[in-house]
């Protein structure tokens, strides 16, 4: 019925206007927060200490089409300064992976700018797939950054399944031998890293679009409208929300 | 207290019922998620809030499930998957686990009593999970309900009970490994499509929308594989307080994300197909390379596309046979439980 169609259209238009107004308001608030834009590492560290819970592995899932490497780099460096050891940047198409050099340059630049004199205390490394442990000398905070796409999600799981089947075919393993955590050992994308505790999703699409299905078993998923012009305050608020979440683990 | 709520006859409709129907019709002019998954969280918190005991909270939760199923029918959502009991929930106190099992026992028994309504509405009931972890009498009721309704195809209700997604995925991999051991399939046959068909949810499409109530924002080991491209809707409301309007809000939310999700899903499927075709091509070429490294026999090399086609056809045949074998195995498990029940009843 035409009436029904028109009504639905009106409802969706109203919702779209409401979202637009909210982002406008959010955008207007930014200049006020501008003076806080340059955070120093000591302030970040003290903010970090005040959190009730710090994630160990953060997923920065970008579901927007327009990538701003400067802002993504800031997010990575803020995470590192907070003491988060594993950071995974994701976009389903693998655009971040293809442009890893540009992104990396931004990260190095921000590391210098933000961390200043403490910059060489942090070893921010880009890790591809299987990581071999490196010996770190001196007092260094080791941060592993991974650039992931959908082939590191379902496809990685499929390859793990294939490897298991090959082992069974070659009689290296028996059917029934697969432990609950067995498949995990065969995954390559996040080998050596713990499960993701927190996902910060940037963009208005409300889906993870294929991000690491196995590793997000207990991950808290916090959505932010965009990573464009992301400021530290918004990032901190998200981490504070994470800190306040209570998990019961089925009990 | 029943699972299937009947429609009230039109002349007995209250204004609110009529308004609900009107709103449902408005929503239905847009895209409707055909398969919705629910994490029905918040029963215990609701009980605490109202000063009830936990068992009562869970019973209210069940009532809400039955109501929600009817609302879904009204909205044209014909498949619903719910997370009723996680393998992790066995960690709860013995008292609570037993009380939950008792509720399950009563509810599944009740389901069997509603056979007429179930057949009339064409509802296919499936219980997904590691059923062997459950008390035997509950396993038997579940098996009876599943066998009785297996040919129904108007509406689908999947109840995840004694379920975790990781267990489901591992189980699917073990099924494939068994297929390899028996020579039914090869490791190279493992694909997204094959894994999809080995999961407990093999007969369902991936959920289009996943709703979690009570304000929690995680998947808690539910449909991790299947929800990769689902619209996620996290709501603050506690499950026993979930209303038709909350469901409408979730559907509106789905409609707003519909195009982006469809695009991403289609792209992903295209990439998968391309990757599979490439893998087939590569393996045919690799074989030919071994046989004829200097490319002396041009006719063989010219026949590559045909060889690729042949490989695909053979793989499809292998996979079909394997999946039929798997379906039979699962059907036999249920039939055995039902037969044991019948013997028990007769003797």
UniProtKB/TrEMBL annotation, chain A:
It is found in: Endoplasmic reticulum membrane. It is an enzyme of class 2 (transferase). GO terms for molecular function: ditrans,polycis-polyprenyl diphosphate synthase [(2E,6E)-farnesyl diphosphate specific] activity. Its cofactor is Mg(2+). Keywords: Endoplasmic reticulum, Magnesium, Membrane, Transferase, Transmembrane, Transmembrane helix. SUPFAM superfamilies: Undecaprenyl diphosphate synthase. InterPro entries: Nus1/NgBR (IPR038887), UPP_synth-like (IPR001441), UPP_synth-like_sf (IPR036424). Its EC number is 2.5.1.87. It holds the Pfam family Prenyltransf. Pathway: Protein modification; protein glycosylation. One of its GO terms (cellular component) is dehydrodolichyl diphosphate synthase complex. It comes from the Eukaryota. It catalyses: n isopentenyl diphosphate + (2E,6E)-farnesyl diphosphate = a di-trans,poly-cis-polyprenyl diphosphate + n diphosphate. Belongs to the UPP synthase family. This is ditrans,polycis-polyprenyl diphosphate synthase [(2E,6E)-farnesyldiphosphate specific]. It comes from Branchiostoma lanceolatum (Common lancelet).
């Amino acid at each position: 019925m035409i009436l029904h169609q028109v009504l639905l259209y009106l409802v969706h238009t109203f919702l779209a206007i409401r979202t637009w107004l909210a982002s406008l308001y959010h955008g207007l608030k930014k200049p006020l927060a501008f003076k806080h834009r340059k955070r120093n590492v000591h302030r970040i560290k003290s903010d970090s200490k005040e959190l009730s819970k710090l994630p160990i592995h953060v997923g920065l899932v970008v579901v927007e089409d327009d990538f701003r490497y400067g802002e993504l780099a800031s997010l990575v460096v803020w995470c590192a300064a907070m003491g988060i050891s594993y950071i995974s940047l994701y976009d389903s198409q693998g655009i971040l992976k293809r442009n890893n050099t540009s992104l990396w340059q931004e990260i190095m630049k921000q590391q210098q700018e933000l961390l200043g004199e403490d910059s060489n205390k942090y070893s921010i490394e880009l890790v591809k797939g299987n990581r071999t442990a490196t010996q770190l000398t001196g007092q260094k905070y080791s941060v592993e950054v991974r650039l992931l796409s959908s082939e590191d999600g379902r496809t990685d799981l499929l390859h793990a399944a294939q490897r298991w089947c090959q082992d069974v075919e070659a009689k290296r393993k028996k059917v029934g031998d697969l432990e609950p955590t067995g498949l995990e050992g065969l995954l390559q994308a996040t080998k050596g890293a713990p499960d993701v505790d927190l996902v910060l999703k940037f963009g208005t699409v409300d889906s993870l679009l294929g991000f690491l299905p196995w590793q997000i078993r207990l991950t808290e998923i916090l959505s932010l409208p965009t990573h464009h012009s992301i400021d530290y305050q918004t990032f901190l608020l998200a981490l504070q929300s994470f800190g306040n979440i209570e998990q019961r683990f089925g009990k | 207290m029943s699972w299937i709520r009947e429609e009230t006859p039109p002349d007995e409709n209250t204004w609110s019922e009529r308004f609900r129907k009107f709103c449902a019709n408005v929503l239905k002019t847009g895209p409707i998620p055909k398969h919705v998954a629910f994490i029905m969280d918040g029963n215990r918190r609701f009980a605490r809030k109202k000063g009830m005991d936990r068992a009562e909270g869970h019973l209210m939760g069940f009532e809400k499930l039955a109501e929600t199923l009817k609302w879904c029918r009204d909205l044209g959502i014909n498949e619903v998957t719910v997370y009723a009991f996680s393998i992790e929930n066995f960690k709860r106190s013995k008292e609570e686990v037993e009380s939950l099992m008792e509720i399950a026992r009563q509810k599944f028994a009740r389901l069997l009593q509603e056979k007429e309504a179930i057949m009339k509405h064409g509802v296919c009931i499936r219980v997904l999970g590691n059923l062997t972890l459950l008390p035997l009498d509950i396993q038997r009721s579940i098996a009876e309900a599943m066998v009785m309704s297996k040919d129904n195809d108007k509406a689908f209700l999947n109840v995840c009970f004694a379920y975790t997604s990781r267990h489901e995925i591992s189980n699917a991999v073990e099924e494939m490994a068994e297929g390899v051991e028996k020579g039914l399939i090869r490791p190279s046959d493992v694909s997204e499509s094959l894994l999809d068909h080995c999961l407990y949810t093999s007969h369902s499409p991936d959920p289009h929308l996943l709703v979690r109530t009570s304000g929690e924002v995680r998947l808690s080991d539910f449909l991790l594989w299947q929800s990769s491209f689902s619209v996620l809707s996290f709501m603050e409301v506690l499950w026993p307080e979930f209303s038709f309007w909350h469901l409408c809000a979730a559907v509106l939310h789905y409609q707003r994300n519909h195009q982006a999700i469809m695009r991403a899903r289609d792209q992903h499927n295209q990439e998968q197909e391309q990757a599979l075709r490439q893998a087939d091509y590569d393996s045919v070429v690799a074989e030919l390379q071994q046989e004829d490294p200097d490319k002396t026999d041009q006719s063989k090399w010219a026949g590559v596309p045909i060889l690729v086609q042949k490989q695909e056809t053979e793989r499809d045949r292998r996979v079909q046979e394997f999946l039929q074998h798997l379906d039979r195995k699962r059907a036999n498990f249920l039939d055995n439980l039902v037969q044991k029940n019948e013997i028990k009843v007769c003797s």
